[in-house]
Write a structure and sequence with these properties.
Blueprint: H1 2-15, E1 16-18, E2 24-26, H2 28-35, H3 40-54, H4 60-89
Antiparallel strand pairs: 1-2
Helix pairs in contact: 1-4, 3-4
């Protein structure tokens, strides 16, 4: 099991770049993995949200998990917004108005 964490740790170390300002950038390999499940917008929102959710950006292995989690949250938010929009734009069956005589 330690070897699996070692592989993930190496993957995180080579695919997560943290600038001095704290902004996170990701390598092509991680971006390709994330693009299989998320849109570019969802990935960018995940990257923006991950540092505030992880608390400590020093541990790249934890940050890797948090990036994936935050991308998932962004996807869930998009799906909820799409469902809400679909529900509000559905047209109700119209019934003819009856006027009193």
């Amino acid at each position: 099991m330690a070897a699996a964490f070692g592989d993930q740790s190496a993957f995180a170390a080579t695919n997560i770049i943290i600038s001095r300002s704290g902004k996170i950038s990701i390598g092509e390999e991680l971006r390709a993995e994330l693009c299989e499940a998320y849109t570019d917008s969802q990935i960018e929102r995940g990257l923006e949200r991950a540092p505030s959710q992880s608390g400590n950006c020093g541990n790249k292995l934890k940050l890797l998990a948090q990036i994936r989690r935050c991308c998932s949250y962004a996807k869930e938010n998009d799906e909820a917004a799409a469902r809400k929009l679909a529900a509000t734009t559905q047209t109700a069956p119209t019934t003819p108005l009856r006027y009193a005589r």
